[in-house]
Amino acid sequence: MFQRAANGAKFLRHVVLFKFKDTASQADIAKIQNEFRALATTKVPQVQKFESGTHIGKESSNQGFTHGFLLTFNNEQDRDIYMAHDDHKAFVKLQQGIIDKKVVFAFWGE
Fold first, then answer.
1. For the chain, which domains are there?
2. Fewer CB atoms inside 10 Å of the end CB: C or N, the chain?
């Protein structure tokens, strides 16, 4: 189980939302999901926790975003290592032609 940072600091939450292109197949979507999970859980040790899921809200304000991902880091330096990691850069390239839009939002969680 994951623990609060040793110094009692808040965790950095990194939220990513994807809206897939209409032409994206189920295989394309599964590939993105699987690659994101592998990136966060096996390739970049600075990621403390990874969660993912699909939109389940009854409201229609999701603007077509169907898949959400939450990565947790201990600090900004760990997030920056993740962002600069070669496997992260490869994952961003993989999204081309599959992802229509994305939102990336970071905050300090309690």
1. 11-109 (3.30.70.100)
2. N
